[in-house]
Amino acid sequence: MNGIRIVVCAKQVPDPEAPFTAVEVDSEAKKISTKGIPPVINPFDENAIEAALCIKEEDGAEVTVLSVGANISHAVLRKALAVGADNLILLDDPHFKDLDSYSTAYVLSNAIKKIGGYDLILTGRQAGDWDSGQTGLILGEMLEIVSINLARSIKIEDGTVVVEKMIQGGYELVRTKLPSLVTVSSEIGELRYPTVKRRLQAHKQPIEVWSAEDVEIDSEKLKTIEIMELLPALGMGRQCHFMEGDSPEEKGENLAITLKGIA
Questions:
Q1: Lowest CB count within 10 Å: 37, 52, 67, 175, which one?
Q2: Which of 233, 191, 209 minimizes the C-alpha distance to 83?
Q3: Per-residue buried b or exposed e for 176-214, using 16+ beta carbons within 10 Å of the residue's own CB
Q4: Strand ranges for 70-145 from DSSP E
């Protein structure tokens, strides 16, 4: 199957390789400060871009990269164009700052519907900042398409997508019809390095920027991530008992009686 249309959802995050000492938590304002940490494309989303480019090389495809946020760095996201993506669309609006997983999926779904046709949607398995791992699967539900999680390999065969889905102790081979959504794991491979020529071309390539109004977003439906202070559960405590007995069996019986009394 030639000429499939792939949409890759990529998030800008603070560099996960930055030292933890650069991250500060403001307990009063309930915010996290990452000043001085440069933004990057989420590493798992880079894996998804690499998967799309491999399909493009193998079967032919048009790759469009979508990113949601506020004050998104054009320079950072242009990397997607430099490595071989065909289009880059930034969903950039003050209303899109610090969205939770559901709200992010809602914005992405509206943008994908605005794009029109697609055959395959790829996302990273999770983000490098909050590690929720929810947005991709929620997006699939909103678009009412089949979703496959934790892919380590993706191939297109006769109008279907064949995925090696990671499971404990191995992998599971899953095949489904297009259109579908796949979340990609790091086992699929790191994103290739862009050549100098591609970097120069990407710098000149136009980027589309859409606002909340452009994708018909109801701002009242948007919710942001909230940091909450967890209080210790009431009634929690520790008790220490030394079991007495002339034999292991007697000690075991005494332990059972003690635990029953505590319960």
A1: 175
A2: 191
A3: bebbbbbbbbeebeebeebeeebeeebeeeebeebebee
A4: 87-92, 120-124
- In what order do the strands lie in the sheet containing 208-210? 170-177, 160-167, 146-157, 180-184, 120-124, 4-9, 61-69, 87-92, 208-210
DSSP annotation of 99 reads B
**Whose structure tokens read 């994908």?**
112
Q: How far is CA 142 from CA 110, 175, 178, in A?
A: 9, 21, 16
Give yes or no for a contact between 238 and 111, defined as CB atoms under 8 angstroms apart.
no
pLDDT in tens, 183-242: 999 999 999 999 999 999 999 999 999 999 999 999 899 998 877 766 665 566 666 767
| pTM, 2 dp | 0.82
Q: Which residues of 157-169 are buried (b: 16+ CB within 10 A; e: fewer)?
A: eeeebbbbbbeee
Residue 212 to residue 250: CA distance in whole angstroms: 70
Among 152, 143, 132, residue whose Cα is nearest residue 66? 143
